[in-house]
C-alpha cells in the first residue's frame, strides 16, 4: 500500500484537565487515592471529590472533571473490581518513589488507539475506521530514525504524518515510509499541517496534549516548533520501540459492541490493564538525575 498522508483522521484522546499543571496535581491525586482506597465504588466519587476540593478551590464540575478525565481515564490511577475501587500499581509505584517521569512513561507506554477510556460511540467509530496503533511508540521510533540521520522533525510534521494520518493510525505504514514521505515533501518545498476544519481547539487539542504527555515522560525535548529525543533516555526509548512490534494489549474490535453493559465492561477491562506495571517497566522507566539535565549540545547533532 502506498502511504498517502493526505488521508487525514481526527483521532482524539481524553481531554486532560490542566495538563500543564499535572506535576502539581499528580501528588495530590495520589495521596487522596492512597488515603481512601480501597473503597466501595458507590462511595468513591463523592469521597474523592470532597477531599480534592480541599486542595483545588473550584466549582463542582471542574473538581469532577479532575477525577473523571485525569485521575481515571487519562492517568489510570485507579481501577474497579467487584464494585470496589483500588489504587492502581502505577499510582502505588509513584507513591513509593515520586518518579514523575516514570509515571508518565507508564501512561504513554500502556496507551493505545482505540482504548477503553472513551465513549462507546467514539470507540465504535475508531474500530470502523480500523484504527490500531500505539501512537507514542510510533512517534519515538520515528524520532529515533530521524535522529540517526541527523534530521530534526517539527511538530506540524509529526502531527500531520503520524497523529492525524489515517493509514498510520491503522498500523499500515512503517516509520521508514513516514520519514520518506516527510523528506520528499521537504525536497519539494511542501509544508503540510493539520487543517482547521472547525476551530483550533477542535482540530489541535488532542495533538498538542499528546506532545505534552510525551514531554512529561522526559523522553523528548521540544520547543515552539521542533521535537526531538532526549538521548539520555535511550534505554527507555528503545523499550517503547521494541514494544511497537507487538499487537495491541486489548483488541476492542473483538468485543460484541451490542452486548448489554458493554461500555462498562470495556472500561473496567481497560482500567485493570492500563494502570498495571511490570517489573520490566519499573526497571526501564527509572529516571536518573542525569537524564533530566538538558545538554547544551546542538539538537541538530544528536548522536545515537
UniProtKB/TrEMBL annotation:
Q: Where is the Restriction endonuclease type II BpuJI N-terminal domain?
A: 14-270
- Keyword Manganese on this protein? no
Under the heading Pfam families, the entry gives: BpuJI_N
- Any coiled-coil regions, as ranges: none
Source superkingdom: Bacteria
Q: Which UniProt keywords apply?
A: Endonuclease, Hydrolase, Nuclease
Concerning Gene3D superfamilies, the annotation shows: 1.10.10.2080, 1.10.10.2090, 1.10.1740.180
Which protein is depicted?
A: Restriction endonuclease R.BpuJI
Q: Which organism is it from?
A: Candidatus Uhrbacteria bacterium GW2011_GWF2_41_16
What lineage, starting at the top, does this entry show?
Bacteria, Candidatus Uhriibacteriota
Amino acid at each position: 500500500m502506498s502511504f498517502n498522508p493526505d488521508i487525514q483522521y481526527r483521532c482524539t484522546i481524553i481531554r486532560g484537565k490542566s495538563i500543564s499543571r499535572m506535576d502539581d496535581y499528580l501528588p495530590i491525586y495520589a495521596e487522596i487515592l492512597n488515603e481512601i482506597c480501597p473503597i466501595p465504588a458507590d462511595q468513591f466519587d463523592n469521597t474523592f471529590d470532597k477531599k480534592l476540593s480541599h486542595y483545588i478551590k473550584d466549582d463542582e464540575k471542574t473538581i469532577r472533571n479532575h477525577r473523571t478525565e485525569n485521575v481515571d481515564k487519562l492517568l489510570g490511577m485507579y481501577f474497579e473490581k467487584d464494585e470496589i475501587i483500588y489504587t492502581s500499581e502505577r499510582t502505588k509505584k509513584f507513591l513509593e518513589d515520586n518518579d514523575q517521569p516514570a509515571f508518565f512513561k507508564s501512561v504513554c507506554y500502556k496507551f493505545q488507539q482505540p482504548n477503553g477510556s472513551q465513549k462507546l460511540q467514539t470507540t465504535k467509530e475508531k474500530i470502523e475506521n480500523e484504527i490500531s496503533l500505539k501512537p507514542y511508540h510510533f512517534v519515538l521510533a520515528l524520532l529515533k530514525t530521524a535522529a540517526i540521520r541527523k534530521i530534526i522533525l517539527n511538530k506540524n510534521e509529526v502531527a500531520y504524518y503520524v497523529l492525524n494520518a489515517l493509514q498510520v493510525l491503522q498500523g499500515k505504514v512503517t516509520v521508514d515510509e513516514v520519514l520518506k514521505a516527510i523528506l520528499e515533501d521537504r525536497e519539494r518545498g511542501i509544508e503540510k499541517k493539520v487543517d482547521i476544519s472547525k476551530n483550533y481547539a477542535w482540530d489541535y487539542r488532542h495533538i498538542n496534549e499528546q506532545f505534552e504527555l510525551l514531554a512529561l515522560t522526559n523522553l523528548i525535548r521540544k520547543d515552539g516548533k521542533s521535537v526531538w529525543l532526549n538521548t539520555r533516555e535511550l534505554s527507555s526509548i528503545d523499550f517503547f520501540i521494541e514494544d511497537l512490534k507487538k499487537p495491541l494489549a486489548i483488541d476492542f474490535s473483538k468485543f460484541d459492541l451490542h452486548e448489554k453493559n458493554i461500555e462498562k465492561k470495556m472500561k473496567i477491562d481497560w482500567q485493570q490493564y492500563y494502570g498495571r506495571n511490570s517489573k520490566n517497566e519499573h526497571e526501564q522507566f527509572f529516571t536518573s538525575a542525569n537524564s533530566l539535565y538538558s545538554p547544551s549540545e546542538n539538537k541538530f547533532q544528536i548522536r545515537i
